[in-house]
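Possible race condition, two jobs.
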Amino acid sequence: MTTKISPQMLTPATLQMVRNHNRIINGDMAIDQRQAGASVIVPAGSVFPVDRFRAGMSGANGTGQRVACTVPGFPYMLRVTGAGGTTAAWIGQYIESVNCTSLVAQRVTVSYYAAASTITSLSVVLKHATVVDNFTATTTIETVAKAITSTMALYTVTFTAVMPAGAANGLYLEFVSGTNLAATTLSITGVQLEAGTFASPFEFRQRGQEFALCQRYYYKATARPLGVTLNVADGYSSLVHLPVSMRTTPTLDSGASYSVGAGSAGTPSITGGNPEAVRMSNAASNWSVNTTISVTAGYTAELA
């Protein structure tokens, strides 16, 4: 028997359960503004191999890269590869406080696809920030170790802990290699964190929506025209209008560069702005006057 769903049954509470339930952004690793699929060195600190997901290693630097995935429905996965001296590796995402406040006093469930070439255990760790949207100091809520194999498989963790008041400061979901990673691989995709004690199917958002969610935290401009130079340091039209309102006024990521029609390219600098637009200038103050300018840069408003 088929039950017809009437519009009256689609209450706001019901709609919230069936859409926008995943608090993780880019859980299917589809957006990769920073690296565009290229491999990146994963250090002892952290780096972003794909949008919103940071990775780090201890003992020795390895690599991280978005690669093809064979799980149906998931074209991509994030893979980290250790080196001979790598003692541990981790992959995680900071979740902004505004997306966590409704989880307080609830239990949450994490689901993900993962595989490892050698290690047999992967710990799923949930922490909360001590200060709102500041992850310099965190408190561990719960850690769950899960067995893992070399074949990509779906795993589910329902934390026994009820989310404390501190969860409203922002959550940090982290996957940590349970044993010495060494020169082996760890792969993951389909990451989802949701309220409740069961795992629902992965929430595939429309690509444009997922892209915009990522751009709240990072935007990559490539050869973005800025008009012509007004003087040695400023341009006539040097505002970069950001495609979405970012989490905060962004800063420049490393590797920003100018291209000019003539003379020295100079050094990119942000001299003012807000989460919607920033004003660019030349920190080296050595442009030729009345030449064209374009900028290639990453603008970051990531949580830290």
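Job #2 (started ~2 s after job #1):
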Amino acid sequence: MEDHLFDLIKSLSSREKSYFRRYSKIHGDNPDSNYLHIYNFMEKQKEYDESKLKSHFKSKPFIQYLSSEKNYLFEHLLNSLMNYHLNTTVRGKLARSVLHVDILMQRGFEKKALKILKQAKKLAYRYEEFTTIQLLIRFEEEILFSHGVINFVNRLNELEKEREDCIA
């Protein structure tokens, strides 16, 4: 029987597993949380067997909501992996920068957003992450439109050319 949660758990490196445990503690989760019990049980299994899982937790009230608990664990694992990889890969660093720019723009800190945006754009060009460059260009245009920066028409034209070069 196939189970994506089990496959995800089995695909984790030892560092990712360690990070997941720390991540769960940092985020205030009770070490007795249902999803952590499921995680620990599944991690020890060699092959996925849901009947063994249900049998093991048959006395626990959460077993009637097993699907929901497994979905929560899956989401928690993905969030942990996302945080872990935001600092370890170029794509992760770019994703983190994009999130920072977006948050700063929403809060009205356009100057700081532009500073991070320009650094991210340099990194994206260095690693030829053209999709990210397109997104950063769009953010820069939004900042220009929201502030009506002097000579912003010239800058918009430059950004349009940059977009075309990126697509090419």
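The chain is about 75% helix and 0% strand.
Logs attached separately.
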